[in-house]
Specification:
It contains two helices and two strands. By secondary structure, the protein is α+β, with helices and mostly antiparallel strands. The protein has one domain. The protein is flat and about 45 Å long.
Amino acid sequence: MKPKETRRLDVKKLRVERYQVAYQDEVTKRITDLDLEEGSFVEEGWASWRDAVMGAAEDWISRKTENLVR
């Protein structure tokens, strides 16, 4: 079988204080900037939060490539 390549966040970087602070600040900014209307659907609110957190992670925590054999 051909190995499957995945790209996961390198969360070990969060052990370094400068990455912790930068990531936390970016997540806080993105969540604060969300324009959620009162009474919006749960799915839409969740998607907005997810996108804010993952977007900040992709900006501040690089991805590492792993080869997985299935």
